[in-house]
Amino acid sequence: MRNRKPDFLTVVVIVLFLTGCGSAQTYLTGQLERSAAGGANFTGPETEQSETEETEDEHTEAEEVKPAVCFVHVSGAVQKPGVYELPEGSRLYEVIEMAGGFTEDAAEAYCNLAAVIGDGMQYHIPTEEEAGSLSGGIGESSDTPAGAYDAEGRLDLNRASKEELMQLTGIGETKAEAILAYREEHGGFGSTEELKQVSGIGNATYEKLQDDIAVR
Fold first, then answer.
1. By C-alpha distance, which of 65, 177, 48 is closest to 121?
2. In the chain, where do the E strands start and end?
3. Of 49, 66, 69, 88, which is least packed with CB atoms within 10 Å of its CB?
4. DSSP characters for 95-112?
5. CA 120 to chain centre
6. What distance in Å separates the CA atoms of residue 158 and residue 147, rounded to the nearest whole number?
7. Which H/E stretch holds residue 52?
8. Residue 135's beta-bridge partner residues?
9. Where residue 179 falls among pLDDT bands split at 50, 70, 90?
10. Which of 112, 99, 102 is nearest to 73 (CA)?
11. Distance, CA of 5 to CA of 12 (rounded, Å)
């Protein structure tokens, strides 16, 4: 009996050891499987996010850049006065075409049809009667140029566009818009000196450009 007891204890220890090793192996195997599954779950959203970002980038690149447009108001001696939308850089003749063309009494020679239109501008096409009162008889002489410049090359304040005004010394976009607003409010300039009544334009500015402007 004394010899059998140690043998029995030895067997029990071996069995417990083997059972423990199996549990450890099972535990490690489970951990590896969960780690692998967790890695798959981790990389999944990242892959989906990358694919989404690539798709959005493709859509952004595929979108065509919309061309710049401008809105102008054409009034007076045209068939269909109103506000028209045109691509930036369009010419005055294109606005008139969209407005149905000139009326029979329009003073076509009054306007520079090749002028580049400006956004937010109003272009008033006068009748022959209106043009005669503004210019002192436009078309009476073949030397009288059409458009906003007189025979001496001076810019007519009553005909100039925003872009043409901005070519004058000391006249930027803000002052050009102020000149146009004053002209519209007061029905035009009676003299070049009246330009000093425009907000932002004083004697100093007027003296710099008085030889380059005119009122017809």
1. 177
2. 69-76, 82-87, 122-125, 155-156, 213-214
3. 66
4. HHHHTT-B-TTB-GGGS-
5. 14
6. 11
7. helix 4-62
8. none
9. very high
10. 99
11. 11
